[in-house]
Design a protein that fits this description.
The chain has about 130 residues and is α+β, with helices and mostly antiparallel strands. It has three helices and seven strands; from the N terminus they run E-H-H-E-E-E-E-E-E-H. The strands form two sheets. The chain has a five-stranded antiparallel beta sheet. A two-stranded antiparallel sheet has the order 2-7. It has one domain: Thiol Ester Dehydrase, Chain A (Roll), CATH 3.10.129. The protein is elongated, with a radius of gyration of 15 Å. Helix content is about 25%, strand content about 35%. It starts with a strand and ends with a helix.
């Protein structure tokens, strides 16, 4: 499991003053990027030095409690499935009381950066995410 901490910013909220639904996906993606950075395979590295990309092909979320400006969050990411060419990631968002306030599932697929055709996951990506299976 990979964990990072963040908080809700004013720009994350809607007119009702709570987390705007799309921003839960943004927070999850931020966790994905933090994880890649932590293993030396950040998005910048991927874009400049590899022959693959990992676009999102599916995303879903559940909202379990409202979040307001300033609310701290702990985001826990696990790899629910590491397949031949795709990774299914689960993100659990917890508030300051360790209550789960949201979940996100995102599926990335490996593609060739030139043809955008599906390909096998690169071994460094597959290994990194297999270490984080539940």
């Amino acid at each position: 499991m990979f964990t990072f901490k963040t908080h809700i910013r004013m720009g994350d909220t809607d007119a009702a003053g709570i987390l705007y639904f799309v921003n839960q996906f943004q927070i999850a993606h931020e966790g994905f990027e933090h994880f890649l950075d932590s293993i030396g395979l950040g998005v910048g590295h991927m874009l400049e030095n590899t022959d693959y990309r990992l676009p999102i092909v599916h995303a879903e979320a559940d909202y379990k409690a409202p979040l307001k400006v300033g609310d701290p969050l702990t985001v826990c990411m696990t790899a629910a499935r590491v397949g031949h060419s795709s990774i299914s990631l689960l993100f659990h968002l917890f508030n300051r009381h360790d209550k789960e306030v949201g979940t996100v599932k995102i599926v990335h697929v490996a593609v060739d950066k030139t043809t955008w055709k599906k390909r096998a996951l690169p071994i460094e990506i597959k290994d990194a995410f297999e270490k984080h299976l539940r």
